[in-house]
Amino acid sequence: MREVKASDIAAAVARMCVSANTRLPEDVRRKLEECHSRETGAAKEIFRQLLENADLALETRLPLCQDTGLAVFFVELGEDVKIIGGGLNEAIEEGMRQGYREGYLRKSSCDPLSRENTGDNSPAVINLDLTPGDHLRIAFMAKGGGAENMSRMTFLAPAQGWEGIKKFVIQRVAEAGPNPCPPTILGIGIGGNFELAPKLAKKALLRKLDDVHPDSKIAEMEKELLAEVNKLGIGPMGLGGETTVLAVKIAVAPCHIASLPLAVNVQCHSARHEEVEL
Amino acid sequence: MSTTHRLQTPLNDEDILKLRAGDVVLLSGVIYSARDAAHKKIMEALDRGEEPPFPIEGAAIYYVGPSPAPPGRPIGSAGPTTSYRMDSYAPRLHALGLKATIGKGKRSEEVKQALREHRAVYLGATGGAGALLSQRIEASRVIAYEDLGPEAVRAMKVKDFPLLVVNDAFGGELYAKPKLDSAG
Predict the structure, then answer these.
(1) Smaller CB count within 10 Å for chain B: N or C?
(2) Domain contains A49
């Protein structure tokens, strides 16, 4: 067994919350630069502002976006890891609260009915996977409400297949229009069931924008869907242009013979996430 | 070709009638932050026959919930939130003289109708550029509903706050219509 201190987990999580909210990931920045050089007019101006915003956030430590999100974690915990001095969930929650407090990040969590703010951004959304070995890997995503609100899950009939999937995704992006802060990134979960498809969709957003899916068939699907949604012409902030979506990331899992579950998680251009290995 | 207008709050009919969808507005003066929870409270105040927490006549409301101000800064990151969630509230405020709302994303037909009827505009700020936009906010003070935290109503003093006219008072709209026929 490898021992990991709960206090080390909390400290790493606190650092990650602040850092992810103030530093745009390198791959996202590169993509925005590419778009800036390709687009014209109003679309180009939006990319210029987003790049300036990223520079400024880094320099001032102000969050890239005021919506610093619900704090979402994907944890891969090796079966041979023993957490000492506290529990794993507690440590993540504590680190998150500390990061959001000390990093001057917005507390965006509230009671769904009374709408009363919980005051410390808790609770974190923690997805835990047990894995073989003694690794502990924690990925953090600051997921804003505007883009999350535009995400959807549906059950298609198996007969609808890939064509049905494309149609649903295109329709979703069209209906969302300027609302989720395009250009967006689409995480798409195909298969699984009612709880698994959305989880696949969200986890797919942790991938690098320019990576290529190891399954060449899925890589082709991602490419095809990206080209299709970008024909919509919604453009950055809905002002028109070639770039409505920066990347499409698909994750697939087996499903029931009666179902074709499909989840589309929409991520804004400010795709803030980071991970740490402890 | 779009025109750039330097405007000062409070806004009047003359200011509004100059604006066309696609124009740039550099807004200066005091604007008021209010989003979901604050709008609900404002409506409840109006229902009770009370005054809203700021003068609505000529006002501009910014749909924003800023991040906390770090030491030495007037405000944290302060970009727009998605506007449709305030669609059910906006027409009533426009009827009371609200001249502009600032946010991002689409508005309902009812809101667009209210803009035409009451000579008002919907202005777009760049979503996800909260650090950049905060540089144009010189001062910020909570004036109502402090218990709402990030959703409290703030009076914000802005200088050349950069905006685009998304919906004007004549039915004009800036947003691109999705080309569903081309995709798929």
Answers:
(1) N
(2) no
Residue type present at position B49: G
Q: Do A228 and B183 touch (CB under 8 A)?
A: yes
pLDDT at B183: 86
Whether residue A165 lies inside any domain: the answer is: yes
List pLDDT tens digits, range B49-82. 999 999 999 999 999 999 999 999 999 999 999 9
The domain containing residue A195 runs over which residues?
Answer: 146-271
User: Is residue A222 scored above 90 in pLDDT?
Assistant: yes
Give yes or no for B79 touching A (CB within 8 A).
yes
**Is A26 within a domain?**
no
- Nearest-Cα distance to chain A for B121, in Å, is 17
Below-70 pLDDT ranges, chain B? 1
Nearest-neighbour CA in chain B from A199: distance (Å): 24
Whether A56 and B79 lie within 8 Å, measured CB to CB: no
Q: How many whole angstroms separate alpha carbon A13 and alpha carbon A249?
A: 25
What is the crossing angle of helices A41-60 and A26-38, to 10°?
150
A220 to each of A212, A215, A217, A224, B60, how far by Cα in Å? 9, 9, 5, 6, 47
Summarize the confidence of residues A256-274 as an average pLDDT. 98
- Indicate whether A131 and A193 sit together in one domain: no
Give the ipTM: 0.95
Residues of chain A positioned with their CB less than 8 A from the CB of B67? 62-63, 66, 68, 104-106
The answer, yes or no, to whether residue A239 has pLDDT greater than 70, is: yes
Q: Quick one: residue B149, left, alpha or beta (phi over 0 = left, psi -120 to 50 = alpha)?
A: left
Gap between the Cα atoms of A136 and A151, Å rounded: 29
Domain co-membership, A135 together with A191: no
User: What residues in A contact B127, CB-CB < 8 Å?
Assistant: 65, 146, 181, 237, 268
Whether A139 and A150 map to the same domain: the answer is no
Chain A partners within 8 Å of B130 (Cβ): 53, 62-67
The number of domains in chain A is: 2
Asked if residue A25 has a cis previous peptide bond (ω within 30° of 0), the answer is: no
- Tell me if A46 is assigned to some domain: no
Active site residue B5: no
Nearest to A231 among B70, B129, B179 (CB): B179
Structural domains in chain B, sorted by start: 4-167 (3.20.130.10)
pTM reported for the whole predicted model: 0.96
Contact between residue A228 and residue A171 where contact means Cβ atoms under 8 Å apart: no
Distance from CA of B103 to the nearest CA of A (A): 10
Q: Which of B81, B174, B179 sits opposite A146 (nearest CB)?
A: B81
- Average of per-residue pLDDT values in chain A: 97
Of B66, B69, B131, the CB nearest to A53: B131
